[in-house]
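User: Hi! I'm working on a homework problem where we have to compare a predicted structure to a textbook description. Could you give me the structure for the chain below?
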Amino acid sequence: MSAHFPTLPDQVPARGSSLSRTMFKKLFLAQGWRFEGEFPNLSKAVAIISPHTSNLDAWHGFTALLGLGIKITIFGKHTLFNTPLKPLLQWIGVIPVNRSIQQGITQQIIDFIDAQDRIWVGMAPEGTRKQAESFRSGFYRIAVGAHIPIVMFSFDYQHKTLHCLGVFHPTGNYQQDVEQILDHYVGKFSPKNPKWLARPLQNRIKNS
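Assistant: Happy to help. Predicted structure tokens:
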């Protein structure tokens, strides 16, 4: 693995070509960013990334994902697929979910994961780029329900680094586990817009 950018392991779901991966890798690095951390070789995972305080997060994350050649699955409201955005959503890899059906979104996602041989689900725990008082538990409930690990990533704007913080295996005790997850972020993140930093991450800065 390069000191600045990893090679995608063979069990991780992949997309793109050698040409597209090279192009986006160069674009990511040309902006002065780098990638640090050991990329886990997992066929299924819930991937979370924080902090999320700017629309630029999506740009840096997107170029890194395409540079890696990883296929990340995102879930969105089914009504979005009735708009002109449908072709773009399909190309990105967004899967529609219906909030109105009885089983609920979480179970729909779990059922979808169970039906796949390889899948990484991407989520931002804050649920918004503006200041969140807490992490939303959806990512955790999906990981527990699908019996898959959580892979943690962070943006560090101060050092222009995208960190892979490792793999976390949930126990089913959300309150206990989320504190351990947040501990992995200490010293490994800095937001684009500090005023919008989620409260749990603010607390990790104060306690570090």
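For your comparison, note the following. The chain has a mean pLDDT of 88. The chain has one domain: 18-207. Good luck with the assignment!
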